[in-house]
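Ticket #4471: structure output looks truncated?

Reporter: J.K.
Steps to reproduce: submitted the chain below (160 residues) through the standard prediction queue, then opened the result file.
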Amino acid sequence: MADVDISDELFEKCLRALYHAPADKPSLPMLVDLHGGQTEGLRAAIAVAVAAAREDATEFVVSAHPDRESINWDSFAIRVKDCGRYGWGVLRWSRCMNRAGKWVNQPDRDDRDDAWFAEHRFDLDTALRMARAEAPHLRVNGSSLADVLEFERLHEQGAN
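Returned output as attached by the reporter:
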């Protein structure tokens, strides 16, 4: 086993999580006693798990709306989602983008074959580039982003 070590603080947090123990009780020595006093193997196992941990992004959201807190932000969002071995999909509601940059309805899973995936799934860079290029041109119920931003501005002025 590789010589991996973790801080006492991280080891204590992991023990507390293992025993669902609150931050103040029981004390670390009591947690060690709960584990039978044998912490060397557990500490090494936790260290290996921590070293192997990684973050995997499975979805990115691209929106041209500048205010993430706006009720309309998500309406102008495009999702770039990891679709496993097929690559990344550029998705908006139940639709996806094809290689020609057109929105199409996604068929049921059983109706998708390799040719369909080749036309509608991309590498991550391509999918993000397509989403960023399309986001400013989205329309919601016929309204452009500029229309919605102007409506929000006027609504905010009227509220003040």
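Triage note (M.O.): checked the attachment and the full token line is present. The chain has a mean pLDDT of 85.
Status: closed, working as intended.
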